[in-house]
Design goal:
6 helices, globular
Length: 155
């Protein structure tokens, strides 16, 4: 184990919205180091959202992310030969990370022609409180609620 924790590199905000969260999202969306392609997909998805809903795509994306951000999760812990699912609070940094990953994962699994189209439809669904990513958050919360009895094992 290392003596000190590694320093986090600061992210540069994106050009259009001047937001570091957009850069973080695009970094997760990116495949094979093709950041420019990822930005094109993201901005195209924002335009599609704005066209479909007649609202600002960026605001809907922010709402979607906040809707699918988990508050609790379960972690496995071995105690006396048995494995228990112990509910625990999610760190603020991990909350954002999980919501971004879920949104991108369920976008990729959707039906559609292009990634921008799939991403746009998943963002719109998440902002309304439906879709795969929102269901994942609900399942995570339900699992934590079901295992509340093991909360006293918390480290």
């Amino acid at each position: 184990m290392r003596k000190t924790q590694a320093k986090k590199l600061p992210l540069a905000p994106d050009a259009k919205y001047n937001d570091k969260l957009v850069t973080r999202f695009v970094n997760n969306l990116m495949w094979q180091g093709k950041k420019n392609t990822a930005y094109v997909i993201f901005y195209d998805a924002m335009d599609r959202i704005a066209k479909q809903t007649n609202e600002d795509g960026y605001d809907i994306w922010k709402r979607a992310l906040s809707n699918i951000t988990p508050a609790v999760e379960v972690r496995s812990r071995r105690i006396g030969g048995a494995t228990f699912q112990i509910p625990s609070e999610v760190r603020p940094d991990r909350k954002i990370s999980l919501s971004i990953k879920w949104l991108i994962r369920y976008s990729r699994e959707r039906n559609g022609r292009s990634m921008a189209e799939k991403l746009a439809s998943e963002i719109i669904a998440a902002s309304k409180g439906e879709g795969g990513a929102f269901k994942k958050k609900e399942d995570t919360h339900r699992m934590a609620e079901a295992n509340k009895a093991f909360a006293h094992f918390k480290v």
